[in-house]
Write a structure and sequence with these properties.
heterodimer, A: 553 residues, mainly alpha, Cytochrome C Oxidase, Chain A, 17 helices, 67% helix, B: 191 residues, Four Helix Bundle (Hemerythrin (Met), subunit A), 6 helices, 75% helix, elongated
């Protein structure tokens, strides 16, 4: 069956494939389009990062002009959050959630296609700024206001031309797409579960996507509102962020971070889902503390809504404001700690298989812990007064985004690639990818903390010699090369394995959730019959009829 | 185990989807309301709300009653009385249209008689954006209402469509509820 569907796949004409992509409302195809689209932008943002690292590798460098440097860090950040991390997670969610809950598609397939295309056009629109709106020949083509675009930098006075409009409109488009996707995830997970799949038996990945959906509803919307206000200011003479008319620029900061901080949890929570699926399978144990895991995720979701102003300690808030946001931010550590302990307890005493997905998850556990610890350091207002907007902050959030989010996304690729394509990714190349990327990650981001502590501000296009920053920056830049090499191995592995990888069969990892019950790749209708579920590990029940899980749950 | 003999019932996806959308929309409105409240009395020059705004009692009554007629429309449709459904639905549509026309007239007065626009001051910026955001939602609702009204008059809306009409009604009730907030903030607190 698996080889048969692979043979079918190869014989489609390119035109037919394009037609299918444009016209499809199938959750698996849309999921794949999200993923491919995000990988494309991952490469783009990676190239931007490399260019910036070359510029910063030594003092007084002239590789990039200050203007180009500003555009690069703006696009790197914006692309990373909106056009790499979110689409890739939507892609996996789209592909996996219906399979995992035993459904044939998402709740609203056409809304799903609409959401994808909105997000996709948002990204293309952002990069169209290079060519349109006075680009190429004139200055000021791409947005250069930073990914959080503080007012009044975005006002017509300081951002003439249309570069900022491209930024605003592209995020508005992507925001509409994200809200559509969130509505769809929530409706799918609540209303499309197969018989027996109660909320307490749902795979944790589905739970995490439910929490992510809820968070998107209340976080992306404020961003959309703020973008509408910014557009009113720029196009029709509004005064929301116009200090000359009594407007407040701090209000933009509040509105942006009311979006911006929970956004981090929008990104990391589905990644918790990946880890919670992969760690048990490769430890050969059921997930430890499932209810605690769900409760911790939901409470992280709630607490994350009340921490935004820890991005703004240096603005000069009243002391009770500072105290409030210090405390709420530190409270996040409690549910996060519960999660880390649950994963460790799952691994503890297990029969661990160190396959590539597990390696990336173990890397995640260490790195996410360190990222959390530097997070608590920065949550302390006096510490933040010293280090806000320094390279320490840059190192901290890259530790979360690369060391946490990207590592689990790699784990997810190695784990579910066989399901999606019907072929295994090459393990040897996978291990090379893991180790080289791990070395690169630690070279870049461990050492990036130090120039931050030494006072190097973020977003400077160069620095003077003799401040003690050169060596650390050089090490960070060398690490970037390792990371790029790791990514190249990964891309090569994906392409080669697509054609020549070992056949996967339905269930190569001996896993326990429903997506492994169907063929690889799954047929259009997912399951020939609607599955019925009696425990959290339906495939365990099938494989071990003498000792099923539902006897104990 | 539980669940094997009891029937497997899940919530309606239409309703869950609409409630999710309403949560997202509420968050958008919350930000605009927050901006409005924050900027009350912060305009550097006039006019002030008290000088130009009149409390729009009539259209408010119209909009709020339209929720009631919408409710009756759905209730009659559930019983299969399509004729009275059409009547109630059309009344809802007319009441909504009166509200939108009223907002339009208010804006026309403000812009052409008072010379008060979105560019005038902070009050203008926040007033037009908040009331305009709400009016755009009313407009979207009216488009939906019109489509269903046409289908209803053509005899295409039957009892089995009551679930879908109810999902749409959720949106309309939300638009009305938002007006209560906007009305309170703009015409009572802000004035």
């Amino acid at each position: 069956m698996a080889s048969e569907s692979i043979a079918l796949r190869v014989h489609k004409s390119p035109l037919h494939v394009v037609y299918e992509c444009v016209a499809t409302a199938d959750h698996k195809k849309i999921g794949l389009m999200y993923i491919v689209y995000a990988l494309l932008f991952l490469v783009v943002m990676g190239i931007e990062a490399i260019l910036m690292r070359i510029q910063l590798s030594h003092a007084n460098a002239t590789f990039l002009s200050p203007e180009v440097f500003n555009r690069l860090f703006t696009l790197h950040g914006t692309t990373g959050v909106f056009f790499v991390a979110m689409p890739i997670l939507f892609g996996f969610g789209n592909y996996l959630v219906p399979l995992m809950i035993g459904a044939r598609d998402m709740a609203f397939p056409r809304l799903n296609a609409f959401s994808f295309w909105m997000t996709a056009f948002g990204g293309f629109f952002l990069y169209a700024s290079f060519f349109a709106g006075g680009g190429l020949s004139q200055a000021g083509s791409a947005p250069d206001v930073g990914w959080f675009a503080y007012a009044p930098l975005t006002s017509p006075t300081f951002s003439p031309g249309h570069s900022t409009d491209y930024w605003t409109l592209s995020l508005l488009l992507a925001g509409v797409g994200s809200i559509g996707a969130a509505v769809n995830f929530i409706a799918t997970i609540l209303c499309m579960r197969c018989p027996g799949m109660t909320l307490s038996r749902m795979p944790l990945l589905a739970w995490m996507n439910l929490v992510m959906g809820g968070l998107i509803l209340v976080t992306i919307s404020p961003l959309t509102a703020a973008q509408l206000m910014l557009m009113a200011d720029r196009y029709i003479g509004g005064h929301f962020f116009d200090t000359a008319a009594g407007g407040s620029v701090v209000m933009w900061m509040h509105f942006f971070w009311i979006f911006g901080h929970p956004e981090v949890y929008v990104l990391i929570i589905p990644c918790f889902g990946f880890v919670s699926e992969i760690v048990p399978v490769f430890s050969r144990k059921a997930m430890f503390g499932y209810p605690a895991m769900v409760a911790a995720s939901v409470s992280i979701g709630f607490v994350s809504l009340g921490v935004w102003a820890h991005h703004m300690f240096t603005v000069g808030m009243p002391s009770y404001g500072n105290a409030f946001f210090v405390l709420t931010t530190m409270v996040v550590a409690v549910p996060t700690g519960i999660k880390i302990f649950n994963w460790l307890a799952t691994i503890w005493g297990g029969k661990i298989r160190f396959a590539t997905p597990m390696l990336f998850c173990i890397g995640f556990l260490f790195q996410f812990l360190i990222a959390g610890l530097t997070g608590i350091m920065l949550a302390t207002a006096p510490f933040d007064w010293q280090l806000s907007a320094s390279y320490f902050v840059v190192a901290h959030f890259h530790y979360v985004i690369v060391g946490g989010i990207l590592f689990t996304i790699f784990a997810a690729f190695y784990y579910w690639y066989p399901k999606i394509t019907g072929r295994m990714l090459n393990e040897t190349l996978g291990k090379w990818h893991f180790w080289i990327f791990l070395i690169g990650f630690h070279l870049t981001f461990d050492f990036m903390h130090i120039p931050g502590l030494l006072g190097m501000p973020r977003r400077v296009y160069t620095y003077e010699a003799g401040r003690g920053w050169e060596t650390w920056n050089m090490i960070s830049s060398i690490g970037a090369i390792f990371q790029a090499a790791g990514i190249l191995i990964f891309v090569y592995n994906m392409i080669v394995s697509y054609f020549h990888g070992a056949l996967a069969g339905n269930d190569p990892w001996d896993a326990w959730t429903l997506e492994w019950a169907t063929t690889s790749p799954p047929p259009d209708y997912n399951f020939a019959g609607v599955p019925a579920v009696r425990s959290r590990r339906p495939l365990w029940d099938i494989k071990h009829p003498d000792d099923p899980d539902w006897k104990y749950e | 185990m539980a669940g094997n003999d009891t029937p497997w019932v899940l919530p309606s996806r239409g309703r869950v989807g609409m409630i999710s959308l309403i949560i997202a929309e509420s968050a958008i409105f919350m930000i605009f309301v927050a901006a409005y409240i924050f900027y009350i009395g912060k305009s550097l020059d006039g006019p002030t709300p008290r000088q130009v705004l009149k409390i729009p009692i009539f259209i408010t009554v119209c909009l709020l009653s339209s929720s009631l007629t919408m409710h009756w429309a759905i209730a009659t449709l559930r019983k299969g009385k399509t004729a009275s459904f059409n009547v109630f639905w059309l009344i809802t549509l007319v009441l909504g249209a009166i509200f939108l026309a009223g907002t339009g007239r208010e804006w026309q007065h403000l812009i052409y008689q008072e010379g008060f626009t979105i560019q005038t001051n902070l009050f203008g910026t926040t007033y037009y954006s908040l009331v305009g955001l709400h009016a755009s939602h009313v407009t979207a609702g009216l488009i939906g209402l019109t489509i269903v009204a046409i289908l209803g008059l053509a005899g295409k809306i039957k009892r089995e469509h009551s679930e879908r009409c109810e999902v749409f009604a959720l949106y309309w009730h939300f638009v009305d509820a938002v007006w209560v907030v906007v009305f309170t903030v703009v015409y009572i607190v802000g004035r």
